[in-house]
Amino acid sequence: MFLNPRFYVLPLLFFITLVLSACQTITAPKWWEVPGTTPQARGPAPGSYDPTAAPRQGKEIVPWDPSQPTVAHADAQAQSQEWMTQYDVRGGVRAARVGLLVPLSGRAANVGKEIMNAAQLALFDFAGPNYELLPYDTQSTPEGAVQAVQYAIADGVSIVVGPLLSKSAQAIAPYLQASNVNALAFTNDSTAASQNVFVLGVRPEEEVERIINFAALQGSTRFALLAPADEYGIRVRTAFEAAVLANGAELSKVVQFLSGSDDLPAMIRDMADYDERRKELLEQKAELEGKEDALSQKALERLELLQTVGDVDFDALLVAAGGKTLQSIAANLPYYDVDPKKVRMLGTSLWEAKWVRAEPALLGGWFAAPSAKNRGEFVRQYRSVYDANPHRLATLAYDAVALSAVLANDKGEADYSRQTLTDPAGYLGRNGIFRLHQWGLAERGLAVMQVKQKNFREISPAPKSFAPVTN
């Protein structure tokens, strides 16, 4: 069990999380408030469940196994007696009790440790005297997550922070519904959203929409896509096609590839119409070679410097890839004469790696990602305490725990209802502003970054509120 004595509280940092109540009357804005509201929350509601449905409509909770101790209770036998007799597991102490579902063992244990570290930072920054954070090991598996959420519910938690993995979030959903407990999951998979599970991760669909909208505003009219032929690529393609059409632009090419495939260079060659453009070049050169006038000779000299003639049939290319795949694509694009001076290179947050700045084909390109300005202060705080750089997902853990802490008062009273969590004004966190929608997805304010040789430059700041833009 993590408790938070006042003398352990770290200095407050001035841009962190809290909800702005649309109904509250105030004379001056507080440092944590996100100004402005949007009465109609944006986005499609799937309608796959009824948010107003009564609790305990899901699967009943399996009886707790007293032979398996929780992290919070060393005496498993005594705790099982409290659970089975419905005794007050809080021991008469009124407290906001929050369950942290995190992989402390298994394949995701390293990430889980960093999530735990970030959660403790938020705990010390924001928790009051009657706030309790109870960690449970999900063992990096859906089965482990189910066991962990059963223990958490048995321990009387009012909200769950986590789990990390999409399948784990889906697995615990029936237990959350049965107990009427909400969860703030770290996954970015929209299919994990449900009546009691909020998807807190930064979704690729949002990044695609942001970068396509920005590129269209800057004059791009013909868009192409390079994306993997996997679940991520399917989600990117769906969002890409919708965003291009919404901007009244032309959908030029869509190329999806198998990760690690040897066919990727050939697919880029075909996407760039390289053979046709090369053939046209050779034909023009052959025609000029038989002429001896000065104008023809100058034209021939110019053609000798080219690989092809004519432009590709798109002026913006979204490359939704990272790591070695992105390196391969960056090498093949100029090889097949896709000129970054004529084609705007676009990306997602997968581009946010230092080596990208050394790739000539990507220099000047744009990608959408959470603002580095908000995250920077958290990174410095994390380094000062743990002497290491945090995992990208650590900010989600910090924001989720901070949110659960500030929604609780010093008397141990907390409102973690769906109505409160989905306040349309939203919250200000380490990844910028975000708000939760009734259908379980988080909407985020993202920045547009440009790839420069020395850094990533923010060329379109993330919005500071969800208030409608007015002229």
Automatic annotation (TrEMBL):
Which part of the chain is the Leucine-binding protein domain? 97-452
Q: Which domain of life is it from?
A: Bacteria
Q: Which ranges form a coiled coil? A: 271-298
Similarity remark: Belongs to the leucine-binding protein family.
An individual GO BP term: amino acid transport
Carries keyword Iron-sulfur? no
Specify the protein name: ABC-type branched-chain amino acid binding protein (Modular protein)
The cross-references to InterPro entries, in alphabetical order and at most eight, read:
BCAA_transport (IPR051010), Leu-bd (IPR028081), Peripla_BP_I (IPR028082)
A Pfam match: Peripla_BP_6
Q: Which SUPFAM superfamilies match?
A: Periplasmic binding protein-like I (SSF53822)
Region labeled Disordered — which residues? 33-59
Keyword list (alphabetical) reads: Amino-acid transport, Coiled coil, Signal, Transport
